[in-house]
Write a structure and sequence with these properties.
The chain is mainly α. It has helices at about 1-35, 40-65, 70-120, 130-135, 140-165, 170-195, 195-205, 210-255, 260-270, 280-290, 295-320, 330-345, 345-369. It is extended and about 95 Å long.
Length: about 375
């Protein structure tokens, strides 16, 4: 009897072990499956977020008898035109500044070579105790090689770089993955928007009644928060564009001649979608242009951008954001850095609306508690 009970007990343990092993293997397979499709899941999550973001505009289009499909096409056209305008504004600045850098380097190396040929090692203004060592080095050959290489680079930039950047033939292999991800994002967003009502109803049906009723109650507030954020960003973008354009025209008339004022103003407006760090990002291209002009131009540009940033922080942002969004800058910065480390630069752009959505539920939770 004891042997039979012992046998039954060991057999039962064996079956329990097999079940646990099968569950563990299935769990590992599930984790591996999630890892393999993690890129698709991230794209899908962004597509859902964009649909929530575009929902107020699609609702407006519906009131004007425009369907969701045509509404998404109109939104896509606006986004594509904006990106093209940005690209064709920034690329010429990049080409011009790179060409200036190469030309200056070529001129400097040529002057240095001539000075070396005339007064030898003394052209470098080095201490006397190092002259003996440097006299053993053939700087003439080194400088000639540098001059020839810079000349070849300059020739390449002037003849091939513009077509290289325009056609993208030389960089397709390195950005294929990024392009495919954006294409998938636009495709997912478009088809989710077409079936957004059915997907929304299905989502609420699969949730427990308590959760679905709560989310249904908070949905208008979430959509309204995202709509207010996007509306405020567009207002800030347009305002910063015209403010920066006005003052750049002003300093062009009275102090320094900058040709790329439209592009610099466009960059300043675009950087409104990157909160709290936009002054540095917007200042860099303006500073790069002023650097090759004069020290006076650099000082004027720095003072101008600091003044514009103070005007934005103390007047424009409080006025535009009044009664729309009230977020902690510290919370947004922390969320931006965490998201950036996980999902890259795109997360920085959408950090503010994500924090705004979290705040909607957090405030409600704190009130209930």
């Amino acid at each position: 009897m004891w042997k039979k009970d012992s046998y039954d007990f060991s057999e039962n343990q064996y079956h329990i072990f097999i079940k646990k092993l099968i569950i563990f293997i299935l769990f590992c397979i599930w984790i591996l499956f999630i890892y393999k499709i993690s890129n698709i899941l991230i794209i899908l999550a962004f597509a859902l977020f964009l649909n929530v973001l575009f929902a107020p505009f699609l609702n407006k289009f519906n009131k004007w008898k425009i369907g969701d499909g045509l509404g998404m096409i109109l939104i896509y056209i606006f986004i594509i035109l904006f990106l093209l305008l940005t690209a064709f504004s920034i690329i010429p600045i990049f080409i011009k500044q790179l060409s200036i850098l190469i030309d200056i380097s070529y001129t400097y190396s040529n002057n240095l070579l001539n000075a070396y040929n005339e007064i030898w090692v003394d052209a470098f203004h080095i201490p006397d105790f190092l002259k003996w060592f440097l006299e053993q080095i053939d700087f003439s050959q080194i400088l000639n090689s540098l001059k020839e290489n810079i000349g070849q680079i300059s020739s390449f930039v002037s003849s091939n770089l513009k077509s290289f950047l325009t056609s993208g033939a030389g960089i397709i292999s390195s950005i294929t993955n990024v392009v495919m991800n954006f294409v998938l994002l636009f495709i997912f967003t478009f088809f989710i928007a077409i079936e957004r009502k059915e997907i929304r109803n299905f989502f609420y049906k699969i949730l427990p009644n308590s959760y679905s009723s709560y989310l249904l109650k908070k949905e208008p507030e979430v959509v309204n928060t995202l709509y207010n954020w996007l509306k405020s960003q567009l207002i800030l973008w347009i305002s910063m564009f015209f403010i920066t354009l006005f003052w750049l025209v002003f300093i062009k008339i009275f102090w320094i001649h900058i040709d790329e004022i439209f592009t610099l103003a466009l960059i300043a407006g675009m950087m409104e979608f990157v909160p709290y760090v936009w002054p540095i990002l917007a200042l860099l291209p303006a500073l790069a242009i002023a650097f090759w002009m004069s020290f006076k131009a650099v000082v004027i540009i720095i003072i101008l951008y600091i003044a514009i940033q103070q005007l934005e922080n103390n007047v424009l942002v409080p006025f535009v954001m009044w009664k729309t969004l009230s977020l902690s800058p510290f919370a947004v910065l922390i969320w931006m850095m965490i998201g950036w480390s996980l999902l890259g630069i795109v997360w920085i752009i959408i950090a503010v609306p994500i924090v705004a959505i979290i705040q909607v539920f957090l405030i409600d939770y704190l009130k209930r508690k």
